[in-house]
């Protein structure tokens, strides 16, 4: 194993417990049973924070390290919440397609289902930012949920990234989340 690989694996061990702690603290917001599973991957493009495969969240160790070095742990929490919301979406799609009980309306779940099989990633093969990415309902929903949790928790949300293409819609939806959390007093 080369030195760079050793360094990255040491970072993964270092940050593993940070991520676990964030999950434990925010579990009350997730709207699903069971603890989200996560692992790491390595991509030097730090704009790519996480992805989701087979109901496991994969976090880019380069992006996480960069954020913690800037002491921007709120950004890590924000993007982790975003990925966790994608887990919820996938679970709802699975339930709808298997005639199990769903937690929300079926129209939006059908949209997510379509988007997951026709997904536009944040960047293309050349690394250019995609216009279509932020307009997908599954992305708007994930950003709104994460932003709403952070706002409800009293975090400095002005520092958090919002894709400009869908900013207005995300902010509107996140206000609904804040109202919801307040009414539940969680
Ligand atoms: Zn996303």
Summarize, please.
The protein contains six helices and three strands, in the order αβββααααα. The chain has helices spanning 3-26, 61-69, 73-97, 106-117, 137-152, 167-184; strands at residues 37-41, 50-53, 56-60.
Structurally, the number of domains stands at 1
Poorly predicted runs are none
Strand % is 5-15%
Biggest sheet, strands in spatial order?
1-3-2
Characterize the main sheet: 3 strands, mixed
Give the tags.
186 residues; mainly alpha; three-stranded mixed sheet; globular
SSE arrangement:
Elements: H1 3-26, E1 37-41, E2 50-53, E3 56-60, H2 61-69, H3 73-97, H4 106-117, H5 137-152, H6 167-184
Parallel strand pairs: 1-3
Antiparallel strand pairs: 2-3
Helix pairs in contact: 1-2, 1-3, 3-4, 3-5, 5-6
The structure holds zinc ion.
Structural summary, described in words:
- The protein is mainly alpha-helical and 186 residues long.
- The protein has one domain (3-184).
- 56% of the residues lie in helices and 8% in strands.
- It contains 6 helices and 3 strands, in the order αβββααααα.
- β2 (50-53) and β3 form a beta hairpin.
- α1 crosses α2 (61-69), α1 packs across α3 and α3 (73-97) crosses α5.
- The radius of gyration is 16 Å and the shape is globular.
- The chain binds zinc ion.
